[in-house]
């Protein structure tokens, strides 16, 4: 049904709906453990959402970052558009992490965290710091992991996010 909807949206020129449907498909593929397919669906959604006439999917993290860092109409990306982009970057980071694409995962997580910081979204910023801590732990980069979990704990405590603070402390253990 999702694929039929995508074809219909494409035919009708409803690019944003097509992109949202692809993002939903990506979530389903992720839940099924199909991380490569989930990443491809999300990349396609990002490409359509930013460039309504995509020629091809971005080849790597750098190409995605270039797409997502584009400004809208000559103005800085802010508000809901920036939040959506930060969320997509974080999701791509997770999908890359699951596929052991650590360099790409790090890039996506770092940019997502920076965007949430600039938006003043402390909860999401702390979450991305924890994700970076987890990534560094997997890579046995223990000092960096500890530093990011500690930053996440401080950020969570500063906004009264007890659950986030507990998760960060768990990462420090």
Entry keywords:
0% strand, globular
Cα-to-Cα separation, first versus last residue: 45 Å
Largest sheet: none
The average pLDDT value, as a whole number, equals 77
Assess the beta-strand content as a share of residues: under 5%
Radius of gyration (Å): 17 Å
Q: Count the helices. How many?
A: 9
**Helix percentage range:** over 70%
| Classification by helices and strands | mainly alpha
Provide the low-confidence segments as ranges. Answer: 51-59, 69-77
Rough outline: globular
| Element string (H = helix, E = strand) | HHHHHHHHH
Number of strand elements: 0
Question: What does this protein look like?
Answer:
The protein is an all-alpha fold and 173 residues long. Helices cover 78% and strands 0% of the residues. The relative contact order is 0.08.
Explain the layout of strands and helices.
Elements: H1 2-12, H2 15-31, H3 35-50, H4 61-68, H5 79-98, H6 102-119, H7 122-138, H8 142-158, H9 162-172
Describe this structure in a few short sentences.
This protein is 78% helix and 0% strand. The protein is an all-alpha fold.
């Amino acid at each position: 049904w999702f694929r039929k909807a995508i074809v219909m949206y494409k035919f009708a020129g409803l690019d944003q709906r097509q992109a949202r449907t692809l993002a939903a498909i990506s979530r389903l593929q992720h839940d099924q453990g199909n991380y490569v397919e989930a990443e491809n669906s999300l990349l396609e959604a990002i490409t359509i959402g930013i460039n309504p006439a995509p020629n091809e999917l971005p080849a790597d993290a750098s190409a995605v970052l270039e797409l997502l860092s584009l400004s809208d109409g000559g103005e800085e990306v802010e508000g809901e558009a920036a939040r959506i982009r930060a969320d997509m970057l974080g999701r791509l980071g997770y999908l890359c992490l699951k596929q052991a694409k650590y360099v790409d995962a790090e890039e996506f997580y770092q940019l997502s965290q920076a965007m949430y910081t600039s938006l003043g979204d402390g909860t999401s910023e702390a979450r991305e710091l924890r994700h970076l801590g987890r990534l560094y732990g997997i890579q046995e980069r223990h000092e960096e992991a500890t530093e990011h979990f500690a930053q996440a704990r401080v950020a969570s405590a500063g906004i009264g996010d007890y659950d986030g603070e507990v998760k960060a402390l768990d990462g420090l253990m």
